[in-house]
Every structure is written in C-alpha cells, then in structure tokens.
C-alpha cells in the first residue's frame, strides 16, 4: 500500500477532527490535546509507518521551528481576544503573576533540578526557565472568549494575559542558561553582556517594536478611508501581521514572542469594536489548532516509542509531581495574596499553569545554541511534565471552568470593575 496515500488520508482525518472534536468535547472532562496524544500513540503503533520515529534531540531543528510557529500564532490569537485595555491597575493580576510567580517558579524548579536530578547549574536553570512559562497553545479552554463576547472574567483574563507575556519573558533566563553553559566551556564572562543585551535591549526592543507595529497595522486596518485592511475581511491578515512583527523583531535582536503579543494588544487598542477582530482571531485560532494537532501527534509517537522518556527515573517523576502540584500552585497563591479575590479564584489561577509547546521550544532552542551536559535528562523531565500537564489539566479544565462560571457574577462589567479597584 502506498504510504503517502495512507498518510494523506490520515492527515485528512486529522483536519476534520480539528473542526469537529472541540464541539464534541465542550461538555466532557476531556481535551483535544489528550486525544491528539492518543491518536499519535496509535499511529506510531500501527503496522504502517504513518509517523516518523521522532526524537527531539535528533530532530531538534524541526522541533524548534514547528513549536516556534505554533506559539507565535497562538500569541497573536491571545492578544486579539483580550478586550480589557492595558494598564497597571486593570492588569494587576498579570503583573503579579509575571513579577512574582514566574521568578519563584524558575528558582524553585532550578533548585529541584540541581538538588534532586543532580543537574549542573546551566542545565538546572534551563529546566527552570523552560518550564516557567504557561502555555498559550494548550490553554484555550481556560482563556477568555473571542473578541467582544464578554467572556472575560478575572480567572480567564489572568491566565490568558499571563500566557501571552511569560512565553517571551522566560527568554532572558534561557539566554542566561546558555551563557553559563558556554562560559563553563570557554571561560568567558557572562553577566554584564546578559544584563545589557538579553534583558534591557531585547526586552525594550520587543515592547517598542510590538507596540509600534500593532499601532501601524491598526491604522492601516481602521483609519484609512476606502482601502483599509479591514475592508478585505480576510482573516489571513492575522498570519501576515504575526510573521511581520515576529520576523522584524527577531532581526533587530528583540524578543519576537513578546512583540507579537504586545502587537496584538496594541492593534486592538486602535479600534476595539470592529468585526474585523473576530475574523482575524477565528483564522488565527483555526491555524493554531491545526498545527497544534499535528505536533501533538508527533509528541504522542514519542510516548509510544519511548525514545526520550526512557531516560526517566524516580527522581524525574518526583520533580514533575512537585513542579505541578506544589511549585506552580504555591507561587501563584503567594503572588495573589492581598488581591481580595475569592479563594476559589485564586486557587484556579494558581493551579492552571499549563505547560506545553513553549517549554518544548525553549529546550529545542537552547540545546541548539550550546552543549548542555545533562541535555537528555532535561529533555526527558521537561517532556514528562508537559505530558502530565496536558492529561491532568485537560481532564480537570471542563468541570473547573463550569464551576467558575457557576460561581462568577453574571455581569462581566462588574467583574472588570472589581479587578480595577
């Protein structure tokens, strides 16, 4: 039997499932990513070679680029659907999660890697930095609704805005891990260049480029008379904006992840009520979901073949459980002290720090930039945590968010007013 034809048929089924499964799973305690993993495992075990034997260490370039594209499209979609204007008070939950919970998470996971997994300093820091960001790709079920729908309670807003920004804010710490690994080999100084270039310059450029590009695309879409981009009603404009903002920011050595999300938020600020936002968001979400399913099929094949997870032992399992059950919930809870939110809301925000494709991207990127002595252990532990997060959070998300909806005030404006005070 022609393998190409069989594979083409399978891809057709995957595309159809991408459209159909979200409707079926809406009320069930089961997520689309979980089913993608299961399908990937079944395909890997099938008698036909429908999926290549996939080892991220051997296919690092493919892994990096695939996850990179999926994440930036997800970041554009996340930014487009946030209705709340940016501000210190309005986004105070986000700033707490980024400024307190994220650094605490990096330090705690790095400590677990150093003391339990016996990783060297560079590898331990890479593990902490790669696992610190929450994922905008796999967390769609806990995010705010499409633009202008009003589905933006404080829980969903916090988790959406956090995922939109911390994927990029983890990069300075990934660069620090790379610098430490290189300095150990070459004996070069690291901290001065890291602080000036990887923190100040790259962050500043990312924010400036993203905000400026978002405003520019907003003017082209909503302020031109007669021939604006919004007149086209083409959703693929979202893809063009994503690639332009990301590519230009990377070329001038900024953090493209941050720029894409900031650009989407700036784009919304130009004109908040236009129907074009919905068209852009819907297209970005469809592309993101399709690419996510394809990549998770490969991830399922990793589980089936055991090529990476064979490196696991009880220590990696212990680190995974502590990371998901203790580190994220505790750091999230601590950062939300004094906010006045009900305990239930704080608990949901703290627990649902889903790990996903952003972690895999950072591991692929860093291991391509420097030689880490414990790369295989870092990869195995990181993938295990991602897999557990996908399964546990995927099962828990539907009943949890149903409970949130049942306990939240019906008036979403009142919720936003409460967040500002």
Protein model, in words:
The protein has 421 residues and is mostly helical. The chain has 16 helices and no strands. It has helices at 3-25, 32-45, 60-80, 92-115, 121-131, 154-169, 171-186, 191-222, 237-251, 256-270, 276-305, 314-335, 343-351, 357-369, 375-407, 412-420. Helix 2 crosses helix 11 (276-305), helix 8 (191-222) runs antiparallel to helix 9 (237-251) and helix 8 (191-222) runs parallel beside helix 10. The radius of gyration is 21 Å and the shape is globular. Mean pLDDT is 85; it is low at 410-421.
Give the gist of this structure.
Helices cover 72% and strands 0% of the residues.
Core attributes:
16 helices, single chain, 421 residues
Poorly predicted parts: 410-421
Strand composition percent: under 5%
User: How many strands appear in the DSSP assignment?
Assistant: 0
What is the quaternary state of this protein? single chain
What is the count of DSSP helices, taking H or I runs of 4+ residues?
16
Find the structural class using helix and strand composition. Answer: mainly alpha
What's the mean pLDDT score? Answer: 85
The helix/strand series, from N terminus to C terminus, equals HHHHHHHHHHHHHHHH
Write the layout of secondary structure elements.
Layout lengths: L2 H23 L6 H14 L14 H21 L11 H24 L5 H11 L22 H16 L1 H16 L4 H32 L14 H15 L4 H15 L5 H30 L8 H22 L7 H9 L5 H13 L5 H33 L4 H9 L1
